[in-house]
Amino acid sequence: MSTAIQPTDAARPSEGPSLAAEIGLIDHHCHGLVPQTVERAVFETMISESFVAAPKGTTHFDAPVGLSLRAVCPPLLDLDPFCAPEDYMARRAELGGPEVNRRFLQAAGLERMLIDTGFRGDDIMTPPQMHEVSGIPAHEVVRIEAVAEEVARRGTSGEGFAAAFAAELEARCREAVGLKSILGYRGGFAIDPTPPSATEVTEAAGRWLARGEASGRHRMDDPVLLRHGLWVGAELARSRGLPIQFHVGFGDRDLRLHLNDPTLLSDYLQAMDDIGVDILLLHCYPFHRNAGYLAEVFPNVYFDIGVVMNYTGAMSGRILEEALELAPFTKQLYSSDAFGVAEFYYMQSRLFRQHLARILDDWIARGHCNAREAERIVRMIATDNVRRIYPSFD
Ligand SMILES: [Zn+2]
After folding, report:
1. Of the residues 17, 119, 306, 324, which has the maximum number of CB atoms within 10 A of its CB?
2. How far away, in angstroms, is 392 Cα from ligand 1 center?
3. What is the tally of structural domains in the chain?
4. Over the stretch 235-255, which tens digit does the pLDDT of each residue have?
């Protein structure tokens, strides 16, 4: 895959936006794939953010994401576009999970992947396994709340929690390139933006651990401990030069969408700017315009529309247009948020490339841009912003 850039747009007047078609993307937020062949019923739950079967007599293929999948994915399995879902799934099974994963991942044209390992880690491939399938570097991003839950499962006390959590997070981040929070899934963003006191943390940990032991399930949902996790993570991020990703907006029913507007995080974003920690807002739909505004006014805020292009399919160009309305080009990133099924790596890449080129072509046609500036914009969003804000990948 060529990523060569030409010195002048005069030499290649039409090449600017078309760089989007060939540049190696850095997917800065994605997950592992299911390694084995997936049955249709399971596959359908994985192409819906509901994570459950479609209502009786219907299929998740009859949604923008399913239609888009049928439009672009069958040729990679040697089938015609819009073949019947039955034929698609039969061919998928015939080829087998490893071959399907390899085909879609390689066709995504990625340069490297930054993988969130904090969700259903036992069901999906690890970063080294993802590297094996794709042939490209795969780095780990550590989920703050998942580490707190691990510490609780291993066994600690209210008094011992803070030290055990800090030590474990520090150890887990030694090789990682970033941190991630799912605060958006655990009550949302209307939080007290200040760190809790040591006494508050000890008391909250005692209550939370006891509740976990009684129910047999340690789910990090205590507001005091969530804030504590964000501040311990922030201190680690500051000292190591790591950014912190936040899940924002579009997600499964475990979140409360009205509490996922990232502008609710403004005071915390300001506090992170004060200590020099970069914040990356992931997905953001339908708050991607709010995220663009935050990226404009906070020097430390970045955002993406990961996975949203997959789910909006034929209309995804409009979402990218909206994401490009206001935010500096230096503040937008590329991600797929692909999880489990390899099609999502490929679809988001393809939709992003196609629509970014189209939008920049339109800007050039209307005199708002030229080929050289278009190439710079493609490079910033595809790779350069990620390289600037994450620690060195070497
Ligand atoms: Zn994700």
Report:
1. 306
2. 22
3. 2
4. 999 999 999 999 999 999 999
